[in-house]
Design brief:
Elements: H1 3-8, E1 9-15, E2 20-25, E3 33-38, E4 43-48, H2 54-73, H3 83-100, H4 105-122, H5 139-146, H6 152-172
Antiparallel strand pairs: 1-2, 2-3, 3-4
Amino acid sequence: MSKTESSWKTESHELFDGDCKALRTNQNGDVYQLHVWVKEEKKLYRRSLRTKHLDTALSKGKEEYINIMSRVSSDKKIFSDDVTTVSKKFLDWKYEDIKSGTIVRTRRVTINTHFEHMLRYLHRDMKVGDIHTGTFLGYFNLRKDRDSSVKETTVSGEYRQYECSSNTDTERD
């Protein structure tokens, strides 16, 4: 352990030959955390193991690590993309539909406009995994405030379009 690590780590236990660690830090009190470096996504997965007991933490850590690695080996993402990335992927997908003749160019322009409105509401760096049923509760009022002529059917279409893109992103990859 380096000097910097030792200043914030109070206790560390390696699992699976160091591929993951159950550790305690100065900030989390006596509760163990799991740290796993996910090479495929080049990110550190961190999660509380919600226990102060070492044996329970090691057991939970092993179980969580196995779940993570099984998802990785199945080519499933561990970390959620941001809404801008998902929107771009969806619009690229729709561009392919224009090439194949499935939709016309003006339809993609409409979809792009819907996304621009939605991204202004959601904040471009929001993670798709953070979207929940209550996320869009204020969307209609925001759109009405920006443009009083907007109709409920327009906003409803925008919502459905965005919902569709976040669901198909995982299905098409």
